[in-house]
Amino acid sequence: MSKGWIKLDRDIMDDPSYLSEPFTRVQAYIDLLLLAATAPRTILVRGVEVEIKPGQIAMSEEKLSERWQRSRNTVRKYLSALQKEQKIEQQKTFVTTLITITNNNEKENDEQQFEQQNEQQFEQQIKNIENIKNKKETNLKVSKEKEVKPSFPNNNLSQRKQKFYDSLIPYLDKYPKEMLRDFYEYWSEENRSHTKMRCEQQTTWELSRRLAYWARNDKNFNNNVNSTTTTQRKAKAISLIDRLAATNRTEKES
Fold this sequence. Notes:
Elements: H1 25-35, E1 41-45, E2 48-52, E3 56-58, H2 61-68, H3 72-84, E4 88-92, E5 97-101, H4 104-136, H5 157-166, H6 177-187, H7 207-216, H8 219-253
Antiparallel strand pairs: 1-2, 3-5, 4-5
Helix pairs in contact: 2-3
């Protein structure tokens, strides 16, 4: 089985289907991971202040029973099994049950280290690309030829992913690198059998059009474009005012 991390947005809990069915034990454990506090805080339970540390959840069996759509006896079995597997620890008080995710700090540190390594690797690749462009002084032109399918003729998936990554290089002058990074991470996602990327499963594929459509839906990109346009208009207006003022001074002096 493959090991590693995936990013799971806590907004998934707002999806209408998230709480639509009774939870299994695995779903219950994932739910606890999503509910766990990310920073120290204090909550009120029946008028009593309860301090929560990162990696903890303050929720009674009754509340979990309602949330998971399971009987309290089943919830108790879930929690006991997870505690026996050393995935959680329970501390019952007279107002609630304090559940602690075990090894939470290690999980967070591993995830942060993984993200930092990815970020550093991506930044280094960008620098290498910019250095190559400056040395060769080449003017890379974006091909407008339509592609029926992304073609990365190599049986090695990692090499095909690299070729897909390299195909985005010419677009660095047109789109922000953050947007290109998100685009690459989405379309290079592997299928369950780890044999193909998401983009290789499309019946048609035209990279320039896919990027243009992605950019239109990227709020940060659109905000940057609008901000740049507004700044340029202001600059032109200031320049025009300066020219008019200079003309008036010249006329007065003459």
